[in-house]
Every structure is written in C-alpha cells, then in structure tokens.
Amino acid sequence: MGEIEVDESNNLSPKNSVKIILKTVGPSRPFHLRVPSHIKVRDLRKIVAEGEHLPIENLRLISRGKALHDSKNGEDVYIQLADGDSFIVAVRPKAPPKHVRDGYDDDEDDDDLKFQLPESAARWKWRLFCILHDKLKLPDIVLIAIFSLSVKAWAFIVLWFMLAPVAHKWELGPLYILATGFATIFLNLGHRQAGELSAYSIFNEDFRELPGTFNADRVDRDIRTGQL
Q1: Judging by DSSP bridges, how do beta strands 31-36 and 4-5 pair with one another?
Q2: N or C: which end of the chain has fewer CB within 10 A?
Q3: Contact 101, 34 (CB under 8 A)
Q4: Residue 210: per-residue pLDDT
C-alpha cells in the first residue's frame, strides 16, 4: 500500500519535529505528517484536519486503542511524539435530521442523560466533576442536577439547611416551610418586558385579555356568531 507525503511547509527543524503515520478509517491509504515532537492534542487535530480537509469538530485521533482528548480537568493535554508513531484518524458522521430519527428506536437517545462538562468550564468545576464522577461514581442524572444550579443557588440551599434546625428549635417548622415556598414563587416570577401582556387579564391595562383566552364572554361571543 502506498503512502501520501504531506507538504511540510511549516519549516520545522528536524531536532524539534517528528514524522508520524496517520491512517484514516476506510479505504484511504496512510500518509505521513511532520509535526512538533511536543504538541497539544488540540493543535495536532487541527493540523490533521487542515491537511486532509476534514471537519475538526468531528475528527478524533486514536492511539493504541484510546481516543485522545483535547483537555483533562480543564487543562490542555500535551503529547510527546516520536518518529514512526501511528495514529488512526476517525471522523464521526453527522447525525441524521431529527425528523428522520423520530421513526426509529435509537439507543443513542440515552446520551441525552449523560452529563458532559463543557471544556470551557472553570478548573474547580473539573476537579469537583472528577471527584464526583470518577471517585464517588455518582450517576449522570445526579451530576446534571448538581452542575445545573449556580453557585448562588447552592449558597441559598446550604443556608436553608443551616437555618432549618433553628426554626425547628423555635417550633416554627411549618411556618419556615411555607415561607420558603412563597419566597421560591416570588423570586421566580420574572419580569415582564415593556409592552408585554400578563397571563392574567386583571394585571393588564384596561383588563385586556390575551388572544385565545377561554371564559364565559368567549363562549357567549361564539354562540352569538354561530361558531358553537
């Protein structure tokens, strides 16, 4: 099987560069590529994608049966290369449109329940994720619940549990729970934009109803116009 030599226009010095072998999945022939001996996985994927005109977002490099990741714990992963190192280039195909997938049972629907922390997340979030996922083996649904809340929300939760024993001691437990419920409702009401109608006509100017509101006046109008 022949080999394709990639143009080495980056003027790398022989001391700081190595020649690696890349094999694509499929009938394509392997090719050589000269790259720095110490390089980020992210940069290596970019070089391969540009050299072979492949979509970098779907390109994966596999070495010794393991896929190489751009980052770990929020930090870029570097790789030390040597002459003759071999990698498999795999390009993940694009998913079919949703209207095509709706007619089939797809096992990949379970991926929606798998939690994936964004690579741009803070370093402390990556460390916490590694502890909860790798060491404590928490299920993905729990990780989704933990990381979907902001730091401010977690601060309120911790404060609530700290004050709960105090309310119980003063026999104010039911009142404390009711106050928590009302506070949760009022803090999540949101704010209307200028000119936006409320969902309740009593709060709108001139008691104006929303289009499609179903009430006695609507039934009466439909009867008079012969629509019922």
Answers
A1: parallel
A2: N
A3: no
A4: 76
Longest dimension (CA), the chain: 91
* pLDDT digit string, tens, across residues 109-136: 455 557 777 766 777 887 888 888 888 8
Q: State the pLDDT confidence band at 184, using cuts at 50, 70 and 90.
A: confident
pTM, full prediction:
0.43
CA 72: distance to chain centroid?
Answer: 15
Q: Which two three-digit tokens encode residue 188?
A: 């999540």
User: Which tokens in the block code for residue 23?
Assistant: 């094999």
Neighbours of 85 (CB within 10 A): 17
Helix, strand, coil tally for the chain in percent (to 5): 40, 15, 40
In this prediction, what percent of the chain has a pLDDT beyond 90? 10
Half-sphere exposure of 60 (CA within 13 A, CB side): 13
Amino acid at 67: A
- Tell me the per-residue pLDDT of 46-75, one tens digit each, with 9 for 90 and over: 888 887 788 888 888 888 878 888 877 767
pLDDT at 100: 55
Q: How far is CA 136 from the centre of its chain?
A: 21
Tokens encoding 85: 């190192």
3-state secondary structure 75-122: EECEEECCCCCEEEEEECCCCCCHHHHCCCCCHHHHHHHCCCCCCCCC
CA 44 from centroid of its chain's CA atoms: 23
Q: In Å, what is the CA distance from 11 to each residue of 39, 80, 215?
A: 16, 19, 77
Are 6 and 32 within 8 A, CB to CB? yes
